[in-house]
Structure formats: C-alpha cells, structure tokens
Amino acid sequence: MIAMKTINKFYLPAVLLIMQIAIACPVLAQDDSEKLDKIRSESGVDPTRVMSRAGYTLLIYDLPADDGQINNRLSLNLGVNRWSFSAKYDLVMKRSTEAGVGFNSGFGDMKFSVLNAFFVKGKNALAGAVEFSLPSGKEGISSQYFTATPSLTYSYTINPTLFFAVQPQFTFDLMKDPMYPSLRILTVRTFLAKFTRTGYFFVFEPRPIVDFENDDFDLIISPIIGKALGGGFNLIGLAEIPTSKSGIDKFGVLYQFGFNKSF
C-alpha cells in the first residue's frame, strides 16, 4: 500500500503532464501552420494566395558598359474573395552614356493586372491572370509597347513550410509603332519557396525565356530572400541574373529591394 501511494505521488503528476503536452502539441502545430500560411499569403510570393497589399520597390539595373538604370516602383494590390486587381507604376532614372549629361528621368510603363484563384483545394491551387503594360512614358524611358501577358499559375503545397509553383506566361504586343518589331515571348516561372517559423522566406526561381521573334533563349536565375516583420510588413530582396552572354549584354543584372504592407 505504501509503495502504491509512493508511485501515485511521484508518477501521477508526470503522467498528467505528459497528457497535457500530448493534447497541446496538435494545437501548437495548428498555430504554427496558421502562422506559416499567413506569412506565405502576405509575402506575395504565391500568386494563388489573394491578399490586399501596397508596396515600394527599388530596382537597380546593372547594365553593360557605362549604362545604368534605377526604377522607383509603387504597387497596389486589392484582393476581393479570390479576385486580385493590381497596378504598378515606375519612376525611371536612366544614366546617359554621354559624358556630362547625367540622368534622364521620367515615368515608365504603367502595368495593371487581373487575377482569379479559381481553384484552391487541399494542397493544390490554380490561378489565371492577365497583365497589361501601357507605354505611359517618353521614348527612351518606357518600352513604347502596349502589351498583354496572360498567365496560368499552379502551386502545390509540399508541407506547411514548403511549396512549389509553376507559371507559364506569354507576352505579345497589342499596339506599337510600325517600325518596332513584334513581341512574342514565352516565360516559364518555376519557383520553390521555403518559409520559416521565424518569419524568413527563401525562394529559388529559374526562369527560362523564349523570344520567338528573335529566335533567342535565355535562362534567368533569381534567388529571393524576405522577412516578415509582423503587422503585415515584409522586407524583400532579390536578384535576376541572365545565364547567357546575350542576356547579360542586353539586360544586365537586376537587383531589387523593397517592402510591402498587407491589409
């Protein structure tokens, strides 16, 4: 009898503690999953997750020779149910190759898009979108093309911290100067994104690009790193690096640094 009382005295509290931990673990796992899902949605990395957000991005183009360009981009995204409406506008500062001229500044292209995440079930999601680009700036600053870019995004959630997505998109011109060549460009964005419980997220995106008009191919490598600061704020930095000599000569390397606020 004394032995039984001793066992109860020392082991019963331990058993009760273990039972409490066992009950709490699924709740903690659920809380972590919800936190990671929120970080993923607010980051803007996954096009199939619709959120409202506003942001600012500094784009630095490391162009060949002595050229250089800096874009200040303002963006706004409005999410309504599974619909997303977004707009982006650039203030462009382009360094002249002529000595003593300095920078030419002006407004670049205005872009707006409509997206619908029409299928979201379990680990799978699909979203269709179209983006229009308007040449709202002067020649030498904006592209001078009115274009459309339809796209389809498929994302697969491997686990709460990791997802894979692929997004083929096709850009073509709707209106242009007759002297400008036509545009027919296929881009396939494929990315693997990792989110951490501390708020960091890492994305690796290889992006093959096929230019049908110029019979050209390039592969862009884009590493992305971001940090959720809380309150819907995110810091994001990335690079876009061409792997071909023609791509480096034509586009150079692009660096982006920015932040967004979800609401």
Describe this structure in words.
- The protein is an alpha+beta fold.
- The protein contains two helices and twelve strands; from the N terminus they run H-E-E-E-E-E-E-E-E-E-E-E-H-E.
- Strands 1-2-3-4-5-6-7-8-9-10-11-12 form a twelve-stranded antiparallel β-barrel.
- A hairpin with a 2-residue loop joins strand 10 and strand 11 (233-242).
- The protein starts with a helix and ends with a strand.
- The model is unreliable at 1-7 and 21-28 (pLDDT under 50).
Q: Any chance you could write out the topology, listing elements then pairs?
A:
Layout (H helix, E strand, L loop, with lengths): L1 H42 L9 E10 L5 E13 L2 E13 L7 E19 L2 E11 L10 E15 L2 E15 L7 E12 L4 E12 L4 E15 L2 E10 L2 H7 L1 E10 L1
Antiparallel strand pairs: 1-2, 1-12, 2-3, 3-4, 4-5, 5-6, 6-7, 7-8, 8-9, 9-10, 10-11, 11-12
Brief write-up:
With 263 residues, this protein is an alpha+beta fold.
Key attributes of the depicted protein:
263 residues, alpha+beta, Porin, twelve-stranded antiparallel β-barrel, 2 helices, disordered N terminus
CATH fold label? Porin
Report the sheet-strand fraction: over 45%
CATH top level is Mainly Beta
Number of strands: 12
- Main sheet characteristics: 12 strands, antiparallel, barrel
Q: What fraction, in percent, of the residue positions are helical?
A: 10-25%
CATH superfamily: monomeric porin ompg
Number of helices in the DSSP assignment: 2
Mean pLDDT over the residues = 87
How many domains? The number is 1
Basic shape: globular
Instruction: Note the quaternary state here.
Output: single chain
As laid out across the biggest beta sheet, the strand order is 1-2-3-4-5-6-7-8-9-10-11-12
Order of helices and strands: HEEEEEEEEEEEHE
How big is the Rg? 24 Å
**Spans of 5+ residues with little confidence (pLDDT < 50)?**
1-7, 21-28
Distance between the termini: 64 Å
Structural class: alpha+beta
CATH 2nd-level architecture: Beta Barrel
